[in-house]
Amino acid sequence: MPKKGDRLVVKDPAFGLSIATFGCNIPEEYMYTYMYQEEQNWSSYSGDFSWEAFSNEEYVFDKDCWFRICLKKLDGSRCNPEDAARVSDILTFRSFLTRRSLTDRYIFYRRGI
After folding, report:
1. Cα–Cα distance for residue pair 113/109, rounded to 1 Å
2. For range 13-20, the mean pLDDT
3. DSSP state, 4?
4. pTM (2 decimals)?
């Protein structure tokens, strides 16, 4: 689950992405009962996906959430199995927490802590 400040980076400018985010809203009546289906999903769609919003710009998460990615070629051609096989060359996830924790470790090292 990405945290606020985490990023999705499109490494291949021929592709664009659009994101749908989901929040975690657990209904109050489910908190202390078994009134729900086994393996039930308690996420709620944020309504932020747009077919017109595909971009190869970096996407920065503004909240903790779950997400789904829709990736397409910006020239309008169809994605093929070769594109799917190299998705890690097209798109990467960067965690804000990882960058911050590495910086913190460097500060502690420099100070001798």
Report:
1. 6
2. 95
3. T
4. 0.70
